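Revision sheet: structure tokens.
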Amino acid sequence: MLTDTFRRRPSTAPNTNPAEPGRAQNSAPHETAASAPGHDGAPQPTMRRPALVVLVAAAFTVCLILGYWQWDRFTSTGGTGQNLGYTFQWPLFAAFVVFAYRRFVHLEDSTSTTTTEPPPASAVTEIPIDVLPPRVRLAPSDTLGTDTESRQMAQYNTYLAELAARSDADADAATKQVPPAAPHD
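Predicted:
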């Protein structure tokens, strides 16, 4: 598996044109590099990201080491059942890292062979209005309770609205009262 992971594949298929024996030529221009067949007709694996392979190998090794460490803690005099649980949990994490990498490679290969076409113009791109239930519009007085805190909150919000309106009116008046600048000589 690892040797296939790092094997490079030629970017073109072997020459099938007998008129040009020395030149490699694509057998099908629509084939991508991931789907181009090799010499035996089977698709060749693409070069995987070496840094990702190293990361997966390191994570796998660290998870196994941590599992062994938890086993060592469990077998010591102060070991608990929690350590035993972690002993089995860390190898599962290691297996998940390998599974996730293989799934990533599989998905990468499957998407590289398919072409992505834009959806047709007749495709639905919005949610129809009647799909969701209508929103109930509540008046502000319906959302406030009858307790003292709610009344005080309503009074405070009214006060803030008045201040904002007054501030906007003062700003408008100030911009109207600014005298034009005198020309400089």
